[in-house]
Amino acid sequence: MTVALALVTIGAGGLGAVIRYLLSLGFARVSDAEHFPWAVLVVNVVGSAIGGIVLGMAQHDAVSADLQLILLTGLCGGITTFSTFSVETIQLVAADRWRAAALSVAANLVLGLGACALGYLLAS
């Protein structure tokens, strides 16, 4: 890996983090995060869809290994957030919101994997 590739990957990660932050601000205005962590679900599903598309394109050599690194590790790594998902799940459990916690876990897994698979199939 070259220094330039590392810097571009870092930049893509920063861009992904800014996108995630802006989406979370938008969701904070329209929903009550104490009821359900919609912003985290959306960023995880969007990032998973992008990841699936990149992988599908890589199957046909439409995406170089370098671009794959930039998009998957950088951009998708910056957009998606397992740590916030984990923290918000524990916060829901601590507030005795077991149903919302279970729904969030199931939705992130099913919709995230589904979005990734759909993106992969569409791009393949």
From TrEMBL:
Na(+) binds at residues 77, 80. It comes from the Bacteria. The chain crosses the membrane at residues 35-57, 69-94, 100-123. It is a multi-pass membrane protein. Keywords: Cell membrane, Ion channel, Ion transport, Membrane, Metal-binding, Sodium, Transmembrane, Transmembrane helix, Transport. It is found in: Cell membrane. Its main location: membrane. It catalyses: fluoride(in) = fluoride(out). Pfam families: CRCB. Na(+) is not transported, but it plays an essential structural role and its presence is essential for fluoride channel function. NCBIfam families: crcB. Fluoride-specific ion channel. Important for reducing fluoride concentration in the cell, thus reducing its toxicity. Belongs to the fluoride channel Fluc/FEX (TC 1.A.43) family. This is Fluoride-specific ion channel FluC. It comes from Leifsonella bigeumensis.
